Amino acid sequence: xxxxxxxxxxxxxxxxxxxxxxxxxxxxxxxxxxxxxxxxxxxxxxxxxxxxxxxxxxxxxxxxxxxxxxxxxxxxxxxxxxxxxxxxxxxxxxxxxxxxxxxxxxxxxxxxxxxxxxxxxxxxxxxxxxxxxxxxxxxxxxxxxxxxxxxxxxxxxxxxxxxxxxxxxxxxxxxxxxxxxxxxxxxxxxxxxxxxxxxxxxxxxxxx
Length: 208
Fold this sequence. Notes:
By secondary structure, this protein is mainly beta.
């Protein structure tokens, strides 16, 4: 029973709560988490990342437009070769190509939502308009619709790529607000999200 409850917590990674701000920044750990066959594109999965540990964070926005999803694993974080994915409406690890709307493997350079920069492509991942490594090309970006349920996935390139990370979601200009949680649930002052098999707290920082 404990294993079942723990698996459910790892898959959903949310409490019945939300956190909202223009941009949100959070951190977590994929070590020992549930695994998925990582998408290689919109039409196929990776032959290397066949059972990649991941964390899923539900979110939604209140303004339709282009957003940015960034993952950083540079020191002091330990995640190796992070991989960013975003799903719309629902996410099921057993069908990793269904509802996939965006993905990115490598990013090096200055962050827009997070502070600092990624010194190498193996330590960062970013889905943003103009980034050529996104699924669908640089012109796709991350176009989100207000009130739609989305799921941000923090995964790795290969089956052994896991560890601690920080991540951020926002529009980069402070226009639309990002809500962590489930559409329709009122926003409390704080929320607790569950991460990893150890059920550790997912730290969330507000950014104005």
